[in-house]
Specification:
By secondary structure, this protein is of the alpha+beta class. The chain is built from two helices and five strands, in the order αβαββββ. The longest helix is centred in the N-terminal third of the chain and has 14 residues. The protein is elongated, with a radius of gyration of 14 Å.
Length: 87
């Protein structure tokens, strides 16, 4: 369901003239890290690297609330990312 919603968001973003998407997740959320990587997001450099080699932004959401920042370019023009059927 998450990838379906993201793909719809990508299409809407492209239709609005956007070429890049950014998102964040917690460094301990291994499932989210894997999902975003599979969807073509790249981790952005952080101010440290965790024990798994993931770049982390220390205190991104406040003291002790580290986050991983991702970026994904949107190729092509509006509608270039085809919609997918709901699961």
């Amino acid at each position: 369901m998450g990838s379906f919603l993201y793909r719809r968001f990508f299409a809407a973003a492209r239709a609005a003239g956007r070429t890049r998407i950014r998102c964040i997740t917690g460094p301990g959320n291994r499932d989210s890290l894997a999902c975003h990587t599979r969807m073509g997001f790249r981790p952005e450099p952080g101010d440290r690297t965790d024990e798994h080699g993931v770049p982390v932004h220390r205190d991104y959401d406040g003291p002790g609330l580290d986050r991983v920042s991702f970026v994904r370019d949107l190729p092509g023009g509006p509608g270039a990312i085809p919609p997918v059927a709901a699961p």
